Amino acid sequence: MSITAPAGFRAAGVAAGLKASGGRDVALVVNDGPRRTAAAVLTTNRVQAAPVVWTRQAVSDGAARAVVLNSGGANACTGPEGFADTHRTAEHVAAVLSSGASTPDDEVGAGDVLVCSTGLIGIRLDLEALLGGVDAAAGSLAADGGADAAHAIMTTDTVAKTAVAERDGWTVGGMAKGAGMLAPGLATMLSVITTDAVVDPAVADAALRAATRTTFDRVDSDGCMSTNDTVILLASGASGVETGLEELTAAITEVTASLARQLVADAEGASHDIAVTVRNATTEDAALACARAVTRSNLFKAAVFGNDPNWGRVLAAVGTVPPEVAPFDPLTLDVSVNGVQVCRAGGVGEPRELVDLAADREVHVEVDLHAGDAEVTVWTNDLTHDYVHENSAYSS
Amino acid sequence: MSITAPAGFRAAGVAAGLKASGGRDVALVVNDGPRRTAAAVLTTNRVQAAPVVWTRQAVSDGAARAVVLNSGGANACTGPEGFADTHRTAEHVAAVLSSGASTPDDEVGAGDVLVCSTGLIGIRLDLEALLGGVDAAAGSLAADGGADAAHAIMTTDTVAKTAVAERDGWTVGGMAKGAGMLAPGLATMLSVITTDAVVDPAVADAALRAATRTTFDRVDSDGCMSTNDTVILLASGASGVETGLEELTAAITEVTASLARQLVADAEGASHDIAVTVRNATTEDAALACARAVTRSNLFKAAVFGNDPNWGRVLAAVGTVPPEVAPFDPLTLDVSVNGVQVCRAGGVGEPRELVDLAADREVHVEVDLHAGDAEVTVWTNDLTHDYVHENSAYSS
């Protein structure tokens, strides 16, 4: 069900011929209201794909009627022609959705349609195929179409990612794609979150940003940030239940946390999911900087692939964070790997042989800075032969 | 010859049993004067190995008589005991070198001895073996011992790295080790540079820093900075020729540039050496930030391993640099790979099929920011199966 779990939404996912595999590659999500509240968090990369530029503008009024998403092409670095393709896609969706309109209020404008694309950079989309896919998707929109839509946005993903959070009288649903290039500030990752709660646009925006900050922004597969990352929230109000910022944030966070964890678990070529927790930092930003230094250390990530609890590489990574960002005394650092304190006070702790990394896919690294009381966890993956293979053999 | 090319130096490299391979693992370099000028550039990592802490203090007076270096153990994260080991090593070198002293001026103190270590973090050194190696090295010091010393500091290096710059009446020689973990702010890299020029300590320090900034600091194999990085300059004055800052910097830069290029060429598991040049930036710092963003992109480096000139990944990497660091308009970016302009004005340029990456080990990527006139080149390597293998199968 995913995005169609909340009331007021229809979705579809069809095969339009954009993906060489012939699989589903165009998804359409329609908010039937009564409200059309929308918010979006978009990549902070300065090189932004055409659909990101379009969606930023289209969502700025806090409202949207539909989202069209395609895999099989990112429409990034495609110049003015690429932007025209996105514009034409939105116009086509608007026309198709308006064709059955019985009142002026049912008319959909291009500015009510958000657009997401994912796939290879620097290649124009096959617009004819895409527009044909929009027609087919519009024709198969269904109140239980969430699963098909989730499949249509997959690229190198091996499984579709969906999640639902049930509340008293209202629901949040979500879908996401992404199996690599996950990075802070978002990743090559598309996600649509839906809710039937009655939500003010400003509250929707704040809740989505808060949930993204502590979930999607804290998975970092390979430190690379993409040109297309987009997280969209649509709220239909169909439940009639009003929610406040706090409860909405909590429900969205439940969904995005689940989706983020699924993204890590399906990261390209990974054999371990690694949670790096930094404790007792002076601030959340300090903890985050130290955690990210570890999650971006190729040497540490390669060691985990070799089932080696190499705490020296953890220390070497944490030691690159400037003191003004994260004050700590290197001679007090403790490091535990899967509960074994292999480093104590910056030196040798328990024998590393006590750590068994081969037994589980999950690895938990904990770094204690002894400097304050802030704590952050960032998820990443190990660096494997398969990661290199997937990212060298295939363009993306 | 390398470090013994300039007059006034003797060196040796012996096998002391620290390396499991049984190869040479202890090097000794002695400056016989008449001057004992010294300078050092040390890792900026906050987690610093015992020999780094020792050497920073010992060189602070601008003078040193000898450098002792060992492979087979980094003596990092080894606590007060590890520092005591370094201290005792320096004392032992001083005692051995003083044993033949005929005048008080020939007496060597522990503070005249700089220490470097490289190898696994978090393991105490076999001090008895190391001190035995010092005795053996002192007994085999020779005016042509540079090659043996260069071999004794190798870890995963496949070849010894040496370089010489000849000037009118004076010479600069150098050796370096390092085959991975090369990163800005230095790397798991040890280097000793010697000269027989007559040099003021302040000039020696300034020249070494300037040469390091534009050479060693601009190779970045995997973005990881080590706890032990050390570059040492010793000046004997034996040529009797006085040099100024500019000519000394130029000669040292010639040596360190050659050594840096050799380090990249021997990087662990690499199949391509990649020069990323960023042109027409507003400042050198802006160009450097953009170049480093590219050299740290695992996705781009994996693409090069696959001989794929994936300019989209170059743009995505450059796009992560904040505008306040490097002002540029993403819609004006040009990217060339081996002279083919595959990206023009942020969009598609020449066909990527025109680029042949399989033919050469060297790859030249050029990014034009169209924002100013500063230019920087940073060298890195591709991300390969062998990199993952070497850094997962072996601790370091």
Automatic annotation (TrEMBL), chains A, B:
Pfam families reported for this sequence: ArgJ
Keywords: Acyltransferase, Amino-acid biosynthesis, Arginine biosynthesis, Autocatalytic cleavage, Cytoplasm, Multifunctional enzyme, Transferase
Involved in the stabilization of negative charge on the oxyanion by the formation of the oxyanion hole, annotated site positions: 118-119
Marked site (Cleavage) residue numbers: 187-188
Signal sequence segment: none
Enzyme's top EC category: transferase
Highest taxon of the lineage: Bacteria
Entry's transmembrane regions: none
Main location: cytoplasm
Record: residues binding substrate: 155, 177, 188, 268, 391, 396
Pathway membership, UniProt: Amino-acid biosynthesis; L-arginine biosynthesis; N(2)-acetyl-L-ornithine from L-glutamate: step 1/4; Amino-acid biosynthesis; L-arginine biosynthesis; L-ornithine and N-acetyl-L-glutamate from L-glutamate and N(2)-acetyl-L-ornithine (cyclic): step 1/1
Enzyme Commission designation: 2.3.1.35, 2.3.1.1
Active site, UniProt feature: 188
Catalytic reaction equation(s): N(2)-acetyl-L-ornithine + L-glutamate = N-acetyl-L-glutamate + L-ornithine; L-glutamate + acetyl-CoA = N-acetyl-L-glutamate + CoA + H(+)
Localization (cell): Cytoplasm
Assembly and interaction partners: Heterotetramer of two alpha and two beta chains.
Family: Belongs to the ArgJ family.
Matching NCBIfam families: ArgJ, PRK05388.1
Cited function: Catalyzes two activities which are involved in the cyclic version of arginine biosynthesis: the synthesis of N-acetylglutamate from glutamate and acetyl-CoA as the acetyl donor, and of ornithine by transacetylation between N(2)-acetylornithine and glutamate.
Name of the featured protein: Arginine biosynthesis bifunctional protein ArgJ
